[in-house]
Write a structure and sequence with these properties.
Layout (H helix, E strand, L loop, with lengths): L6 E5 L3 H7 L6 H20 L4 E8 L7 H24 L2 E6 L7 H13 L6 E9 L1 H18 L9 H6 L11 E4 L18 E4 L9 H17 L3
Parallel strand pairs: 1-2, 1-5, 2-4, 3-4, 5-6
Helix pairs in contact: 1-2, 2-3, 3-4
Length: about 230
């Protein structure tokens, strides 16, 4: 039976706790291991014939972490987009970064643009990396975009359809998320794409993100399939 998940969302939680459990001096060791697992996840999704993957890499709330950790995280991000992007290209992954990128410096935004352009030919997996992203922030930005466009066109806006609102979201043109996987033990979405997950099924595990595996992904997909079979879908 073919996998039923078309669009998978993943909240990659637990990197810092993983580093502390393993007695590393810096939590960055957890983030580094988490990047390795994320790269593996792209391959696992291809193996499972999942065409769309969205991951929560850095939330708007993460800006509240220490300046040192934020700086280290963006150093790790730049390394991914300049070095690991070649792995994505080889695997046929098309990379797209979404979120409030105005919070990033111009150098970081250029690195992201370059990575997106380099991987644009990927056809095996459409990857969305949520960076400086928050669901409420996305909704506010989408509403502001609609109002701004209406004002520029001299349109007296009195009503907004779901279709028009969706067209203003970061994920415009991409199917909604079918299944959300969250590692690390918390059972909540934490501002992860509230509009796009309105009808998603949620699968939680206590396993910390760096220890996530292809076998666990298989468990989540099998659970999702069983849910849909029981619902007759």
């Amino acid at each position: 039976m073919a996998n039923r998940v078309r669009h998978l969302g993943v909240i990659m939680d637990g990197n810092r706790r993983w580093a502390r459990q393993h007695m590393f001096a810096s939590v960055m060791r957890g983030h580094e291991k988490g990047v390795d697992t994320f790269i593996d996840l792209c391959e696992w999704c291809e193996n499972a014939e999942i065409p769309y993957l969205t991951v929560y890499a850095f939330s708007t709330e993460n800006w509240k972490r220490s300046q040192q950790e934020v700086s280290d995280l963006f150093r790790l991000m730049r390394r991914f987009f300049t070095e690991e992007i070649h792995t994505c290209i080889e695997k046929g992954v098309s990379v797209h970064v979404i979120g409030n990128l105005e919070n990033l410096g111009e150098e970081d935004r250029q690195v992201i643009r370059d990575a997106e352009q380099m991987s644009a030919g990927g056809r095996k997996l459409y990857l969305q990396i949520a960076l400086s992203y928050g669901g409420r922030d996305e909704i506010v930005r989408a509403a502001s975009r609609i109002l701004r466009e209406a004002a520029e066109q001299g349109d007296l806006l009195t009503e907004v359809t779901e279709e028009r609102f969706e067209s203003a979201l970061d994920t415009a043109g991409i199917p909604d998320i079918d299944l959300v996987i969250r590692t690390g033990g918390d059972h909540r979405l934490s501002n992860f794409f509230p509009w796009q997950t309105a009808y998603a099924d949620l699968w939680f595990t206590d396993v910390l993100w760096p220890d996530f595996s292809e076998a666990l992904l298989g468990e989540a997909l099998a659970w999702y399939d069983s849910v849909k079979i029981n619902k007759g879908k």
